[in-house]
Amino acid sequence: MIFALAGNQNSGKTTLFNALTGSNQHVGNFPGVTVEQKTGEIRGVKDAQVVDLPGIYSIRPYTQEEIVSRDFIIDGKPDGIINIVDATNIERNLYLTLQLLELKIPMVVALNMMDEVRDNGGSINVHEMSQQLGVPVVPISASKNEGVSELVNQAMHVVKKRVIPAVQDFCPDGPVHRCIHAVALLIEDHARAIGVSARFCATKLIEGDPSLSARLELDQNELELIEHSVLEMEHETGFDRNEALADMRYTFIEGVVDASVVKSQESKEHKRSVNIDKILTGKYTAMPVFFGVMFLVFWLTFNVIGSTLSDLLSVGIDALTALVDQGLTAFGINHVVQSLVIDGVFAGVGSVLSFLPIVVTLFFFLSILEDTGYMARVAFVMDRMLRKIGLSGRSFVPMLIGFGCSVPAIMATRTLASDRDRKMTILLTPFMSCTAKIPIYAVFCAAFFAKYQALVMIGLYASGIIIGILVALLLKGTAFRGQPVPFVMELPNYRIPSLKNVFLLLWEKAKDFLERAFTIILLASVAIWFLQTFDFRLNVVTDSANSLLAMIGRGLAPVFRPLGFADWRVATSLITGLIAKEAVVSTLSVLLGTGVAQLHLALPSLFTMLSAVSFLLFTLLYTPCIAAVATIRKELKSGWATLGVVIMQCVIAWVVAYAAYLIGGLFV
Question: Chain-centre distance of CA 503, in angstroms?
Fold first, then answer.
């Protein structure tokens, strides 16, 4: 049995998914966390799965998330629907519920956050609401795991008994009623052929869903009859088609709420949030507070907590490397194999692994900010600024995720309603510095800017943002003319961060980092070791300058000479950086034959302070990893467009690095 889990954004849907399945899905306190379908086995139930659909406010063919949800429900043919409803904001949430009822699929409504309703003096007559909607209604609190077992029992019952919603008609006799029934009668055979409710198809056709019209294979005569019915309805009601359907649904919802809901008083959480927002979203205080918070996060990460833990781990890795080296020497193992283990595996993977504490520390602070609800405010504050470069505040969420990893950030652009905004955001997201580049920044800061690490880090992140803004202004006036779509985002109440959610995210990021270290980085390190150890005839070289790697690096080195770093080893590290940005550090570590703790001492042999700045800017801006490029290809659905993005990023990185080196040379 397959259940579709559907609901509004920020209604606790992913929290319920975790409660149902025990899955470690990340829960975020801002819209747009779930951008793909996630599937899990329902705990305690044999052969039952639940699919977590993207959070949506209605099933309309405008945003990517709505299309994903609609297509799964129509094509995936779930056996049942679990519709999660935020009980503290019930009118808005029931709008989606009415559209789901039209599908005539066994369904149960989960009234979430009932604990907050009770605490604020409200109540809901669950039996009456169930009668009004024609489906079982179950009160739950997903975060406290209250009522979840009853929800599962009701969901299993309606599916096994094939209990179809008893109510699908939400309007009395009148123009809207006549229009819907006329269209439903006209397309009934077509709807039956694709296995979808005629009522649902009728309302979607009235709203103007071209893909559903194509699925139904309607002929021109039928399309003209539908349009005639819609125009007649618009004339009689004085509303356009979408307003007429919205009015019908909200009128019905008002009746349901009046009959079954006792409104809560204003919650203390809302009062507290309003007072806090006077500062955090204030006209003159929002941006200073945001930059202050970000500076504190970076300072604690790179100068205090993260750097200290990273140094301790580096010492441990070097000690383990020395111990293994002594053991292999005592055992008398072949020196080539010993070189592979020490110079390839330990030097390569170890140099990246030592930065795990920095990554985890950074995400610890970011996840706390996200879980409190502050990140939603940041998107709201950024809307006015982003509109000046041709985007809406909604684009800030994918860009913010880009500071963690470009892959989920690019996928998160599916939450954008406008194709123009989505493509433009995809192009700009890689300029946001991902955590994979942190090892590069940390090593170079330790080597050249030891006293100003936090400032240099902030400068690099700010540089990526500034370059992104300049590119956006260029795109806005050329390839992406037009205006961004209106920005609407719910600001959730501030909440105390859930330690479970925070540590789930930390575990997810740490696991991802370790998997990369022991797969992609390991393979890249071994490949670099092989190319550095052997020459063209596969003889072991005594000097790495005669190796295969040196041949490749020398071929590319002239490209980077104007940027201040012409050594073949530097060019080689940038090539491996295309596989994964962490590989830049591991490659330099292998090529320089130094341990992770001493790498910063060896870098001055390849760079001056000025060329180090140029190198950092180039690594900040040039093409992201292969996984990110593949994701761009998937989202843009064009190999040529993806190639254009890659070339654009490399050219921009080269020009910016060259300009920095040239201008810096005037003052040095």
Answer: 18
- Is the residue at 283 inside a domain? no
pLDDT, position 98: 94
Total domains in the chain come to 3
* Edge-to-edge order in the sheet of strand 2-7: 38-41, 49-52, 2-7, 80-86, 107-112, 137-139
Q: Is residue 379 part of a domain?
A: yes
Residues linked to residue 261 through DSSP beta bridges, in sequence order: 124
Choose the final residue of a domain: 100, 130, 160: 160
Band of pLDDT at residue 122, cut at 50, 70 and 90? confident
Same structural domain for residues 362 and 476?
yes
Return the half-sphere exposure (C-beta side, CA atoms, 13 A cut-off) of residue 623: 23
Q: Verify that 435 and 465 share a domain, yes or no.
A: yes
As a whole number of angstroms, the distance between CA 150 and CA 429 comes to: 43
In a domain, 492, yes or no: no
Assess contact for 203 and 180: CB atoms under 8 A: yes
CA distance 79 to 48: 10
Q: State the pLDDT at residue 300.
A: 84
pLDDT at 337 over 50: yes
Residue 365 CB contacts under 8 Å (≥ 6 apart), including other chains = 297, 300, 301
Per DSSP, which regions of 219-368 are E strands? 261-262
Do 204 and 125 share a structural domain?
A: no
Q: What confidence tier does 31 reach under pLDDT thresholds 50, 70, 90?
A: very low
Q: Are residues 247 and 387 in the same domain?
A: no
- pLDDT bracket for residue 25 (50, 70, 90): low
Q: How far apart are CA 2 and CA 151, in angstroms?
A: 15
Count Cβ atoms below 10 Å from residue 223 Cβ, excluding itself: 14
Check residue 138 and give its pLDDT.
95
Residue with tokens 């979840």: 148
Q: Comparing 572 with 344, which gets the higher pLDDT?
A: 572
CATH number at residue 28: 3.40.50.300
Please name which of 22, 25, 135 lies closest in space to residue 81, comparing C-alpha atoms.
Answer: 135
Mean pLDDT of 426-447: 86
Last residue of a domain, one of 106, 134, 160: 160
- Whether residue 248 is found in the same domain as residue 313: no
**Is-contact 247 179, C-beta < 8 A?**
no
Same structural domain, 110 and 232? no
Q: Assign residue 47 a region (left: φ > 0; alpha: ψ between -120 and 50; beta: otherwise).
A: left
Give the tokens for residue 38: 């996630």
* Domain around 607: 288-485+505-665
Q: Is residue 176 within 8 Å of 244, Cβ to Cβ? A: yes
Residue 129 has pLDDT above 90, yes or no: yes
Residues 242 and 292 occupy one common structural domain: no
pLDDT of 160 over the 80 cut: yes
CA-CA-CA-CA dihedral for 278, 283, 284, 288, to nearest 10: 80
On whether residue 272 sits in a domain, the answer given is no
Q: Report pTM.
A: 0.69
Q: Say whether pLDDT at 408 is over 80.
A: no
Average pLDDT over residues 428-450: 85
Beta carbons within 10 angstroms of residue 192's beta carbon: 12
Q: Is the pLDDT of residue 34 over 60?
A: no
Question: Which 3-state string (H, E, C) describes 446-459?
Answer: HHHCHHHHHHHHHH
With cut-offs at 50, 70 and 90, classify the pLDDT of residue 638.
confident
The answer on pLDDT for 572 being more than 90 is no
Residues 446 and 565 both lie in one domain: yes
Backbone angles phi, psi at 140, to 5 degrees: -140, 165
CA distance 34 to 26: 9
Can you give the CATH number for the domain in which 255 is found? Answer: 1.10.287.1770
**Percent of the chain scoring above 90 in pLDDT:** 25
